[in-house]
Design goal:
alpha/beta, 20 helices, 32% helix, 539 residues, six-stranded antiparallel β-sheet, seven-stranded mixed β-sheet
Length: 539
């Protein structure tokens, strides 16, 4: 079996040959290109707008890309190519016009049978599962850095974190695939492709960059078979950020996610979160109570933590002892005693909450109620003179009651302790610099619950430089609040169904999540696509 010839770039990376020798292998004394020594992986890693018919990447060394081009090309072409490779230096290696044309437009090979006759045309390829998704990977801009330079790798990781913090990214995803390490940012709750790093045996960024992140997070770089979690505080763009790092073994290497947690909550008022003005007085009245339980509910990433901290900040003063137990402590508040859960050491939500109740607290905040034990202790605290704030994963406010009962809490305890529930979601705001007005279609009127024939103007996301061509900029909350009044307490004790609680809320003119979201669409704060993505009518 013939051994496949290695490219000049691969030999250079292995330090088997020098840079000059690599160039001589690729371009002989007659200025002819030797196609056998070209590195196809380096060529395909270039960005989609790379002029493939005018420039062929040869090797990358010491932050410089050497590029073959026809001898007729001007020297200024190097400056034009530099921005396409992240402003690295570009050196042109000029070759014969005919040789270059042959390299970029090779003659098609004619397949033959063993007796020398032309082979029949191959069957047309069938659609391959995932082919369209593969094309999305090909469209991601590629980046090339010197894999042998540890400082360059470190700078690249910190640049990715710095850029992420600048654009308001909450999570950075490093995803290994068959040929690339793909980087994505989660911005406004939606993942976006940022760049990819072509991987080879000589420069496997799937290992190199993940190892660098592990070093930053103080994880075991020698262990790649099991998931790992770590946490570190870093100064990024002059701001202190907590980084929660999680790794997970996958088919092509370890996937890594970095969650960026600012030390300070950027929201100071409930109205900044998007809570409707007519809801705020009732919600604040719950916070003013001396005892009872207030719950914030919603799925992961719905903004519960921001609402919880904004609420807590309104309660802290010099006359109260405020204690929290969290996993993790996401924002740091002055004059609040914040406890970090440490399961390995035996400090869980339940055990931490028990200890807090011996600390003479006035207000207790539990990061999340996850099990029956935590729920029962929190309810006992709410019934014995403490105001308890916490979160729960439920679809809407009425579902909170059935969730607690399903955990094993007695209905009479739920009815006695629960003061109110806030359910929420986050809608992306339409970009104010580029949105388009249009008239709602009959189908959209039906979705929004408007009479047929209504002339209603809605907005459509378009995309511009201000919003990174997404059409959206920032998010705001959609809230549903349920005051557990006497009527609801009575039906909870009677074991009423979820539907009955919802009917009581409707009778009391309480707006559902869907109703509030529809109002925001009609008021041109977001789009109908966001409504359908975030909230369902059943909720």
């Amino acid at each position: 079996m013939a051994v496949q010839q290695r490219s000049a770039f691969q030999q250079l990376q292995k330090k088997e040959i020098s840079l000059d020798e690599a160039i001589k292998l690729l371009v002989n004394a007659n200025k002819d290109l030797d196609l056998g020594y070209l590195d196809q992986q380096l060529i395909t890693s270039m960005k989609p707008n790379w002029p493939r018919d005018k420039a062929l990447p040869l090797v990358f060394s010491e932050n410089t890309l050497y590029v073959a081009c026809s001898e007729e090309q001007p020297d200024a072409m190097a400056d034009a190519l530099s921005p396409l490779v992240n402003n690295f230096k570009v050196v042109l290696v000029k070759v014969n016009k005919a040789s270059f044309a042959k390299a970029v437009n090779p003659a098609p090979k004619v397949a033959t049978t063993p007796n020398g006759k032309p082979a029949p045309a191959p069957e047309k390829k069938k659609n391959i599962l995932g082919a369209d998704l593969q094309k999305t990977i090909e469209a991601i801009p590629a980046k090339v850095i010197d894999a042998t330079d540890e400082n360059a790798i470190g700078r690249e990781v910190r640049d990715l974190m710095g850029n992420a913090a600048k654009v308001g990214c909450s999570d950075i995803h490093f995803e290994p695939s068959e040929k690339f390490l793909i980087v994505r940012y989660r911005i406004d709750g939606v993942l976006r492709d940022i760049c990819k790093y072509p991987c080879s045996e000589q420069a496997d960024y799937r290992k190199i960059m993940i190892a660098r992140i592990k070093i930053i997070a103080d994880l075991n770089i020698a262990e790649s078979r099991i998931p790992q979690d770590g946490r570190v505080t870093e100064i990024v763009n002059g701001n202190k950020l907590d980084l929660r790092v999680s790794t997970l073994p996958t088919l092509y290497g370890e996937k890594c996610v970095i969650r960026l947690l600012p030390h300070e909550n950027s929201f100071t008022e409930l109205s900044n979160l998007g809570m409707e003005q007519d809801m705020i007085p009732e919600y604040e009245s719950w916070l003013g109570m001396s005892q009872g339980m207030v719950l914030i509910t919603g799925p992961t990433g719905s903004g519960k933590t921001s609402t919880l901290y904004t609420s807590l900040a309104k309660l802290v003063d010099t006359t109260r002892n405020v204690v929290t137990v969290e996993d993790p402590v996401e924002f740091q508040l002055a004059r609040v005693n914040q406890v970090q859960v440490n399961v390995k050491a035996g400090l869980t939500f339940a055990s931490g909450l028990r200890s807090i109740l011996r600390q003479d607290p006035d207000i207790v905040m539990v990061g999340e109620i996850r099990d029956k034990e935590t729920a029962e202790i929190a309810i006992q605290a709410a019934l014995t003179g403490h105001l308890v704030l916490s979160t729960l994963h439920t679809n809407d406010a009425p579902s909170t009651v059935t969730r607690l009962i399903d955990m094993g809490v007695q209905p009479y305890l739920v009815a006695s302790a629960l003061v109110g529930v806030v359910a929420q979601r986050l809608l992306r705001r339409v970009c104010q610099h580029c949105y388009e007005d249009y008239t709602a279609t009959p189908e959209e009127l039906r979705i929004l619950g408007q009479p047929e024939g209504t002339q209603l103007t809605l907005v459509r996301a378009k995309g511009c430089q201000n919003c990174n061509n997404t059409g959206y900029s920032g998010r705001e909350g959609v809230f549903e609040i349920m005051h557990v009044n006497r009527e609801i307490k009575r039906v909870i004790q009677e074991g009423a169904s979820l539907e009955k609680i919802r009917n009581i809320m409707t009778g009391n003119n309480v707006k559902s999540l869907y109703d509030v979201a529809v109002e925001k669409i009609i008021n041109k704060k977001s789009t109908i696509e966001e409504l359908l993505r975030v909230v369902t009518k059943d909720e």
